[in-house]
């Protein structure tokens, strides 16, 4: 993985020379800085402005792709005419319409059942936060005191992991978050490929920018394209990295002004 800045002339020429760009952007850790709680990760107004400018650009299609639920994502970003993909790629909003990957009802019932069990076993651990996202559930531990983290993990491994292993769910480990979601062969990468097909009427250059730590991202699926990791994460499948969210916004401003 190389620093984007070190390869900039080549990458910039590829982008400027393309007839249409599909820009896929994660939300947390990419458009917003990581905050102590999910609620606090609000989108700064200048970032919303650059997304709005990009959304009106005739040669750029923008999709925000997140592990958050679709409705919450749309509310947080608040820019019309973007494509939104939520819940690990399983909920989509495009051209004013919602599409969903079919997830059997039994899977959703399992998410609810194990999610409520999870909430009850971590209830006494200060800072532990369980978020029911409909098609998935997250256990956030960013605010759990460091000396209690291994206790929390112990409870998770003892009480929850066996339930997950004997169910249709799987576990993803993210940035101070553990995600339980249906074990389906449809993740962010598949949603990205589906989107590329959808807009294939033009020659499309995909650019994916994300801070993926879970392995559920789209870097692997877009191996031929421009993939940019936020932060030099070891083991990332991205081709390039930028240092932080600030560099992402600089890149987006450049695209809005130059393409
Ligand atoms: O797919 P993404 O948009 O990158 O979402 C990944 C996770 O983002 C959120 O959690 C992360 O950001 C929070 C706010 O900055 C932070 O408090 C938390 O520690 C991070 O893990 C979101 O709440 C999760 O559901 C997503 O999986």
| CATH topology term of the largest domain | Rossmann fold
**How far do the termini sit from each other?**
25 Å
Which cofactor or ligand species appear?
ligand L263DTV3
- Record field, number of beta strands: 13
What is the domain tally?
A: 2
Q: What is the SS-derived class?
A: alpha/beta
State the order of secondary-structure elements, H for helix, E for strand. EHEHEHEEEHEEHEEHEEEH
What portion of the residues fall into strands of 2 or more residues? 15-25%
Oligomer type: single chain
Percent helix: 25-40%
Order of strands side by side in the largest beta sheet?
1-13-12-11-2-3-4-5-6
| CATH level 1 class label of the largest domain | Alpha Beta
CATH superfamily of the largest domain: HAD superfamily/HAD-like
Which regions have little confidence, pLDDT < 50, spanning 5+ residues?
none
Question: Do you know the CATH architecture of the largest domain?
Answer: 3-Layer(aba) Sandwich
Shape: globular
Pathway: Glycan biosynthesis; trehalose biosynthesis
Pfam family, one: Trehalose_PPase
Protein name: Trehalose 6-phosphate phosphatase
Cofactor: Mg(2+)
List its traits.
259 residues, alpha/beta, Rossmann fold, Alpha-Beta Plaits, 2 domains, nine-stranded mixed β-sheet, four-stranded antiparallel β-sheet, 22% strand, globular, binds the ligand O=P(O)(O)OC[C@H]1O[C@H](O[C@H]2O[C@H](CO)[C@@H](O)[C@H](O)[C@H]2O)[C@H](O)[C@@H](O)[C@@H]1O
């Amino acid at each position: 993985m190389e620093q984007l800045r070190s390869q900039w002339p080549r990458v910039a020429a590829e982008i400027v020379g393309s007839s249409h760009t599909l820009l896929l952007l994660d939300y947390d850790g990419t458009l917003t800085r990581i905050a102590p709680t999910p609620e606090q990760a609000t989108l700064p107004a200048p970032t919303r402005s650059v997304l709005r400018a990009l959304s009106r650009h005739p040669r750029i299609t923008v999709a925000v792709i997140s592990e958050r639920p679709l409705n919450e994502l749309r509310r947080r970003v608040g820019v019309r005419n973007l494509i939104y993909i939520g819940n690990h790629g399983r909920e989509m909003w495009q051209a004013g319409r919602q599409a969903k990957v079919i997830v059997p009802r039994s899977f959703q019932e399992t998410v609810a059942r194990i999610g409520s069990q999870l909430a009850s076993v971590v209830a006494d651990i200060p800072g532990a936060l369980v978020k029911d996202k409909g098609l998935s559930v997250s256990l956030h531990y960013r605010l759990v005191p460091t000396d209690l983290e291994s206790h929390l993990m112990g409870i998770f491994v003892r009480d929850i992991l066996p339930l997950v292993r004997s169910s249709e769910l799987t576990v993803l480990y993210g940035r101070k978050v553990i995600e339980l979601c249906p074990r389906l062969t449809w993740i962010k990468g598949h949603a990205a490929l589906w989107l590329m097909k959808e807009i294939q009427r033009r020659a499309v250059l995909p650019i994916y920018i994300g801070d993926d730590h879970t392995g559920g991202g789209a870097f692997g699926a877009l191996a031929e394209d421009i993939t940019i990791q936020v932060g030099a994460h070891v083991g990332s499948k991205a081709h390039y990295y930028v240092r932080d969210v600030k560099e992402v916004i600089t890149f987006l401003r450049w695209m809005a002004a130059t393409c």
